[in-house]
């Protein structure tokens, strides 16, 4: 197989998908995203199927259970961990079936898998006493190491099933709250402190390096910490273009100057009143490129097109249309289409 890398000039999804039918979702994603399909997440199935629940299926020797407020580290695997593993196995079976039907087994066609990033995970998982794991340096380290080991094993399993290269996306929607100290605690007197950026960077960088395949770190929140993401070791950074402001311009430019590629969220996750064409969808990216002073060819050479975030909250019809629109826009970028 050829060297693994994140393709550019193509489209992919962020991760989550509406509904509960894994086979239908896999068939749609493989069909609509011919260059970079992904293993979908179906949080509509409930416990064990959301972003943190998926982590329960991946963590090694660190089982999760639930509490009244969310997921909690447990002493031994219980129903929550077993359910999460069962749901992941069903999703993999569905993707493997769709892959076979599409004739892609044993090809150089890459596929993307997603996992919650170590900092968002630590911010959402509780310890036995009810405190967030983020507040305990040892717990942060243990979670990060367990996650990295689990994702490595997950990648190997998907590669074995599909006979194709696998790329990894870490989702860090909570990264800004981790750095700002805006998370809530078990009481007003126990609010987690802001995690210093060097400590956060060390955690994320270690996990990115440990998975040993090209990594995309995705942060669709407003005011993304672009300097930290640039130094994380990721090959690509995913951003929601609609939340970027003038204050983010220098950071985006530095990402490109440092040789990173961008996964730009350009297709809305909610169905609009009128379906926009590729020219309208791509204009924010063209404007961004022009303001940064880069040639527009960067949109073909360094950009992956995605919806602005996961599609779990959309209806099935728009989700499919969103992937198709992303693919159309990626082709327009690759072909050097005119946007003026």
From TrEMBL:
Gene3D superfamilies attached to this UniProt entry: 3.20.20.210
Where does the signal peptide begin and end?
none
Q: Which residues form the Cobalamin-independent methionine synthase MetE C-terminal/archaeal domain?
A: 12-331
Against InterPro entries, the record matches this protein to:
Met_Synth_C/arc, UROD/MetE-like_sf
Q: Which CDD domains match?
A: CIMS_like
Q: What is this protein called?
A: Methionine synthase
- Taxonomic source organism: Rhodococcus olei
